[in-house]
Specification:
Elements lengths: L13 E2 L6 E6 L11 H4 L4 H13 L4 E6 L3 H11 L5 E5 L8 H8 L5 E5 L21 E4 L4 H13 E2 L1
């Protein structure tokens, strides 16, 4: 039997256990290079800037952020597994894994809470191969193209899905 969090994708909100004020924030490959890599697309803010921005947004709603970045798909899957029965939600910027990481898709499908996919740029406004997300079918929703502000929107989406 799945927990009451299983309804997160199927309803407007879900009641969380008291211990679940933690949101896991995951970043995929090459996002450790934010601020250096393609600043004309991703801006000059670093990964630490993004994480701190998300932490501030979450704190305004009584939530905490646990952040991880990895260039390895298996490490991200391990983090997703560790979030089960522990975290209220997952916000994930899967980077290039967005387009082909079916194992991340499957791991997220096994998570009972809300999942928000976030992208700094708008993949749909870029190269055609970026237009497909294998994460979207298991996400509660996606936020894309709003730069750092997208992380605030992702936190707000989580807040809208979790009842106090």
């Amino acid at each position: 039997m799945r927990s009451n969090l299983a309804t997160a994708r199927d309803s407007d909100s879900v009641t969380l256990p008291e211990v679940s004020r933690l949101v896991m924030l995951l970043h995929g490959p090459n996002l450790n290079l934010l601020g250096e890599r393609e600043p004309h697309i991703y801006g000059t803010d670093t990964l630490d800037d993004y994480v701190e921005f998300a932490r501030t947004a979450a704190a305004e709603h009584g939530l905490e952020i646990e952040a991880h970045q990895s260039n390895a798909e298996g490490a991200l899957i391990d983090h997703i597994h560790s979030a089960r029965n522990r975290c209220a939600a997952i916000i994930i910027n899967p980077g290039a894994f967005t387009h082909y990481a079916w194992a991340i898709h499957d791991a997220l499908a096994a998570f009972d809470g809300p999942v928000v996919e976030v992208h700094i740029s708008n993949p749909n406004a870029r190269e055609p191969w970026r237009h497909t997300s294998v994460i979207a079918p298991v996400a509660s929703g996606s936020v894309m193209g709003f730069g750092k502000q997208g992380y605030d929107l992702a936190v707000r989406a989580v807040v809208a899905r979790v009842a106090p």
